Amino acid sequence: MSSSEYPDYVPRNVAVWTKSNVEHTGPRARDAWAQDEITWGVFSIPESQFGVLDDVAGRDVVELGCGTAYFAAWLAKRGARPVGVDPTPAQLATAREMQAEFGLEFPLVEAAAENVPLPDASFDLALSEYGASIWADPYRWIPEAARLLRPGGRLVFMRNSTLVILCQPLEPPALEQLVRPQRGLHRLEWSDTHEVEFHLGHGDWIDVLRENGFEIERLVELYAPDDAETHSFYNYVTADWARKWPPEEIWVARKA
Amino acid sequence: VSYVERNRRVWTEKNVREAETAARLWLRKPHWGIWNIPEAELHALPDVAGKDVIDLGCGTGYWSAWLARMGARPVAVDVADARLETVRSLQKEYRLDFPLICANAEEVPLPDGSFDVAFSEYGASIWCDPYKWIPEAARLLRSGGELVFLRNSTLAMLCFPEHDAPALTELQRDYFGLHRVEYPLIDEGVEFHLGYGDWIRLLRGNGFEVLDLIEIRAPEDAEGVKYNMVDADWARRWPSEEIWKARKRPDDGG
Q1: Is the ipTM of this complex over 0.85?
Q2: Are A76 and A63 in contact (CB under 8 A)?
Q3: Out of A167, A182, A204, whose CB is closest to B237?
Q4: Chain A: closest CA distance from residue B70 (Å)
């Protein structure tokens, strides 16, 4: 599949991420790369609190929707062999600059996570943190992650919680009310940015994972710590909301 | 007074009016939850013919009766003896015999590894502490046995008000810390509910593999409010109930 044959939402999301690269992710990339600790989500919860990643040293890792590849960089610092995959050239250009600056080289592949030009069974870990996990269609990217993983390999991805999506009006932040039906939840278009996201309920996630040969190992629901403040850029949820309900969740599944 | 005793009292009292509906329920085909979704549509159960099934919190025993008609060998457990009295009289009326045990589903006086299926529909699944009854279900199951239970969805739990009224769209309760839930304005019953991550952790921690989570949607033609709990319109937009399916992993013994 060449870039002209991608599903309709891929070029739309690439446009959004090209703009975001100028406004936020590009300028923020240096700090993110310099960070030593692995953290999750908008409230930067340390990985050490959950231990979802185990030991990544010597592991082949594919990051699906890597953006500026800070997460891949964190894993490379711990001895992993990451490959970053992203469909947005501007984000990968930033990632390349950071690689040169930090002296951390690993392959970057310009592709959508629905169709990755890499061989079957070539990774121990498929990872996505606000990447394919919300901007790619799970009915396309989960089978692709299954294909890329070796038997026994792990899939770890972070997404918004289904609850925060149900409570999300057209304008942020999330309300303390259900404003969107779960019925039919799948493709979601935000009228302000025209980006296309994909979200499923818990039952549908379990179905798509099991249908693709994954065993469900964990679902870690993230909260805002007591001292957290609302994120200045990713303001879809307030810290107060996120202390009561999970805004984000990490799924961990193992390929049988 | 323990939550076990409080729930026993609530169900002994409720039994008076539910005994009448139980007789009709026994005659019906197997169906799930407040929206009466036929098992023939959901396929939530494994093949139960010839299988030993334990019904944890059987109430008036209608599911055990249905399981018996499906060819299973059910054993029905309930903490309220009044409920089991109702079951006994229906067993006579319909000439359908299966063992009844008056016990808390958190401590069932039966040997390890004696069942192929552990089942609960609005029984232990919401009235017992999952940190006690899930290990007990794991103990009772044979290796490879399946656990199937229906409960209110966690989403519905977040939306139930404190007074006796159907689920709202406004969130009424925090997700964080969800476990023991009481409704002091309604009755002295004590329910137990967990979030999705905690359910998965608990099931896996007790040697279960998660097979399925069926989120139930009210049918198109459903109308009005059921059990003063959920309006059909709400339950068409969001799942009001869910069925978990899990299998006891063979490599965990049993």
Answers
A1: yes
A2: no
A3: A182
A4: 26
Does pLDDT of B16 surpass 60? Answer: yes
CA atoms within 13 A on the CB side of B2: 8
Residues of B in contact with A179 (CB under 8 A): 169
Shortest Cα–Cα distance, B134 to chain A (Å): 17
* 8 Å CB contact of B175 and A181: no
Within 13 Å and on the Cβ side, how many CA atoms surround B103?
Answer: 17
Q: Which residues contact B143 (CB under 8 A, 6 or more apart)?
A: B113, B248, B249, B250, B252, B253, B254
What is the Cα gyration radius of chain B?
Answer: 17
Name the nearest CA neighbour of B60 among B98, B90, B96: B90
Encode burial over B191-215: b for 16+ CB neighbours within 10 A, e otherwise: bbbbbbbbbbbebbebbbbbbbbbb
Report the residue from A201, A220, A223 with minimal CB separation from B215. Answer: A201
Q: In whole angstroms, how far apart are CA B192 and each of A203, B7, B127, B130, B183?
A: 20, 12, 6, 7, 12
Please report the DSSP string for chain A in residue order. Answer: --GGGS-THHHHHHHHHHHHIIIIIHHHHHHHHH--S-EETTTTEEGGGT--S---TT-EEEEET-TT-HHHHHHHHTT-EEEEEES-HHHHHHHHHHHHHHT----EEE--TTS--S-TT-EEEEEEESSHHHHS-HHHHHHHHHHHEEEEEEEEEEEE-HHHHHT--SSSS--SB--S-STT-SEEE-TTT--EEE---HHHHHHHHHHTTEEEEEEEEE---TT----SS--SS-HHHHHHS-SEEEEEEEE-
- Is A221 in contact with B212 (Cβ distance < 8 A)? no
Tens-place pLDDT, residues B158-189: 999 999 999 999 999 999 999 999 999 999 99
CA B2/CA B190 separation, integer angstroms: 9
Q: Nearest residue of A to residue B176 by CA position?
A: A244
Mean pLDDT of all residues in chain B?
96
Quick check: A5 pLDDT over 80? Answer: no
Residue B17 has pLDDT above 70, yes or no: yes
